[in-house]
Each structure stands twice: as structure tokens, then as C-alpha cells.
Design brief:
about 15% strand, disordered N terminus, about 300 residues, 10 strands, 8-stranded parallel beta barrel, two-stranded antiparallel ribbon, alpha/beta
């Protein structure tokens, strides 16, 4: 998803923040999985954002129910239902209709995604984000979504770099308690300044909750050699979003078989969700990229 590439931690400053992170009761261990790697394919609603945000009657416009129907015509096993595209007033009836539409189309709901900023200090603005999370935890729990993608966020100008990270850790711990009560897992995305994986990992370990892990985004890495960086966070991954381009600007084409290989080597079990953000028309490009992903999973060339 689009993000501000402001890296407010650099060089020795980043190292200083990492060493100052508050300790959890214990450092988070990699996710324990039973059985060998098993990968399935998903499609994020965000991939069709220009049509989900289009006015009704606009050519090729869709709503989330229409997105589910279109996804059912593709070679995908699940859909990720991004919060941005729900109606302004979300009712239980709507959620039940959406859940039913997914089921009758043979599609799992792999997860959801929300906006948030947990780098804020205590106060009214932070409580607005917790209220936002509380609402969406209820919505996604009713849908049966197992995981929600969250951000750490970017601290405001009056919050120091170190304090922003410490705020994020404490706030994520609190958020995990809220998520646990609904049986929903929170996945922290490598996003914004957390495109630095060495900066992200200590935060993940410090939160240390069974209801927390990584939402690995293959496109959000600040190093040109992307794949060793991704390999560092795969052991903590509870969801994977695949971008067809990756790395710092200028971005390069993602080596999809290599990503699949890294996931398998780490024993990841779960969804690889295509989150399409590139320029070619999504209606035409997405089926091609899903075919490439399916071929990679099958050990074939697309």
C-alpha cells in the first residue's frame, strides 16, 4: 500500500534506538508450525483500489461484493478485504452478506488491513486509533478473518525517533490484548521506516505476543538485495503480501519463484496475497501475475 518513504531513523541513530528498546517478558520466538510448508494464493482488494473507489456507474467500478465475484473468476484461493473499501456504515447484515458471498464462491477470507499510527504518545489522538482498531477487530472477527495487517506508523514532529519506536511497542502490546479477546492476530507490516528490516525485527521481538507477528510485504525493503532481508522476517510471518515490483527506488521486478523458495525454506504455511500496485491496468495484469504465482507454487514456468 502507498506509504511515505520518510526514513527518520538512519545509521547510528537507528542502532541507538534498537539498543534502547524496552524488553518484553521474553523475546518473541519464530512462529511454530506443524507440517511442511503449504502455500495458497490470495488477492488483496487493494489491488483494485481505483475501481473500488470509483463512483457508481463509472466503467468497471466495483464494490467489495463485486470484487469477491471477480476474484472468483481467477485462479485464487482467498481474498484480503481491505477496510478502506467497506461502506461508511458497516452493518452486521453487510458483513454477513460479504462472508456468505466469499463462501459460496469458494474463497477464504485470508485477512484484513487497516490504517493506524501507534507511534503516538498517550492522548486523544492515540485513543482514536485504538477506537478504530476496536471497531475493525469486531468487524473482521465477524467475517472470520484470522489476521489484520497493521502499521507501526510515523511519529509526529514533536516525538523523538526513539520515543516513537518505544510508543509503538507499548501500543502494539496493548493492541494485541484487544485482538486476543476476539481471536484475531495482528500482523505488523514492513512499511514506512520499517522497510529497514534490521529496525523492524527488534520491535517484533519486543512485542512478544502469540497474537502478533509479521505481515511480510515483498515490495517494502530499503536494501537493493531484497531477498536476504525478507528471509530475516519470514520466520515471524503470519501473512505474506506479494508485490510484483520490489526494493528501493527505482524498483525492480520481483523474482516470484525466489520469494516462494524463501517461504518454503522457512516452513511458512499460509497465504501469499497478491497486492498489485503497478501501473499496467489491473483488470488485465492481475490474472497474468496470479498465473505466475500459481506456476511458481507448482514449480513451473508461467
Amino acid at each position: 500500500m502507498p506509504h511515505t518513504r520518510r526514513s527518520f531513523l538512519t545509521g547510528t541513530a537507528a542502532a541507538a534506538v534498537v539498543t534502547a528498546l524496552p524488553a518484553a517478558a521474553g523475546a518473541m520466538d519464530p512462529v511454530k508450525r506443524a507440517g511442511p510448508s503449504r502455500l495458497r494464493i490470495g488477492l488483496a482488494a487493494y489491488s483494485m483500489r481505483q475501481y473500488l473507489e470509483a463512483k457508481p456507474g463509472t466503467p468497471r467500478a466495483m464494490d467489495l461484493l463485486g470484487f469477491v465475484d471477480w476474484a472468483a473468476t481467477l485462479d485464487t484461493d482467498s481474498v484480503e478485504l481491505t477496510s478502506y473499501f467497506f461502506p461508511e456504515q458497516v452493518t452486521k447484515t453487510y458483513l454477513n452478506d460479504l462472508k456468505r458471498r466469499c463462501h459460496v464462491n469458494g474463497l477464504d477470507i485470508s485477512g484484513g488491513a487497516i490504517r493506524n499510527n501507534f507511534t503516538l504518545p498517550p492522548g486523544p489522538e492515540l485513543e482514536k486509533w485504538f477506537s478504530h482498531l476496536d471497531m475493525w477487530l469486531d468487524h473482521y472477527a465477524q467475517l472470520g478473518a484470522p489476521v489484520i495487517r497493521v502499521f507501526a506508523g510515523i511519529p509526529p514532529k514533536d516525538v523523538t525517533e526513539e520515543q516513537g519506536i518505544q510508543n509503538a511497542i507499548g501500543n502494539l502490546r496493548r493492541a494485541c490484548g484487544m485482538a486476543a479477546s476476539r481471536g484475531v492476530i495482528l500482523g505488523l507490516e514492513n512499511h514506512d521506516y520499517l522497510t529497514s528490516i534490521d529496525r523492524m525485527l527488534p520491535i517484533v521481538k519486543a512485542v512478544d505476543s502469540p497474537w502478533f507477528g509479521v505481515n511480510l510485504d515483498s515490495g517494502n525493503v530499503d536494501q537493493p538485495d531484497v531477498y536476504p532481508e525478507l528471509a530475516k522476517i519470514v520466520p515471524y510471518a503470519l501473512n505474506v503480501q506479494l508485490k510484483v515490483e520490489t526494493g528501493p527506488a527505482p524498483k525492480v521486478v520481483t523474482d516470484i519463484p525466489k520469494v516462494v523458495g524463501i517461504l518454503r525454506q522457512a516452513g511458512y504455511r499460509g497465504y501469499i496475497v497478491l497486492e498489485y500496485e503497478s501501473k499496467p491496468e489491473p483488470y488485465e495484469a492481475i490474472p497474468t501475475h496470479l498465473a505466475e504465482l500459481r506456476a511458481a507454487l507448482d514449480g513451473k514456468k508461467a
